[in-house]
Specification:
Layout (H helix, E strand, L loop, with lengths): L4 H35 L6 H9 L6 H12 L1 H13 L6 H31 L11 H30 L5
Helix pairs in contact: 1-3, 1-6, 2-3, 4-5, 5-6
């Protein structure tokens, strides 16, 4: 089989494009994966594990746990992308945008996600709490949400402070 010049030069371009997409995907997944690792102490709670076991794919803890960790990182990723895309990099714009992202992402993860888990999921037929969704369940979910928010916000706040210093980035 004889390969012409287009076949030879086309293959490296495809590999380069695929590598670029894989690196982009890894970059977007990194915050969720890091947060998942830092969030693991909450898996000591049987109730917290029961939540992830009840989520699709039902009966499987790890895929649900990693999936939720990745989904909870979306507000932070969207905030960073919007800041970089819409805000002028000169001056304190990016710094303020990253702080706003940390704040609003924290509200989404620390308040909205626990409310969805404790109130929304049972209404959708996902009954996951064997103890009945009492105050201790809410406390566990809010603590887990706030911990995730702190872990996700820490690099954004550090980046915002560094960019606000004289000389910026």
């Amino acid at each position: 089989m004889v390969v012409g010049p287009a076949g030879v030069t086309g293959a490296p371009a495809v590999v380069e494009t695929a590598t670029g997409w894989l690196l982009t995907l890894a970059l977007f997944a990194l915050p969720g994966v890091v947060a998942a690792v830092c969030w693991t102490p909450f898996l000591l709670s049987a109730r917290f594990r029961a939540l992830f076991v009840a989520l699709p794919p039902a009966g499987r803890l790890v895929p649900s746990y990693v999936g939720v960790s990745l989904v909870l990182s979306v507000p932070y990723l969207v905030g960073v992308l919007l800041t970089v895309w819409l805000v002028d990099s000169a001056g304190p714009g990016w710094s303020e945008g990253f702080l706003d992202t940390a704040l609003f992402g924290g509200v989404a993860v620390g308040v909205v996600a626990p409310a969805v888990a404790a109130s929304g999921l049972p209404r959708l037929g996902v009954d996951w709490d064997p103890t009945g969704y009492g105050a201790s369940t809410w406390l566990l979910l809010v603590a887990a949400g706030l911990w995730y928010a702190v872990v996700a916000a820490a690099p954004l706040v550090a980046l915002a402070i560094g960019m606000a210093l004289p000389g910026g980035y």
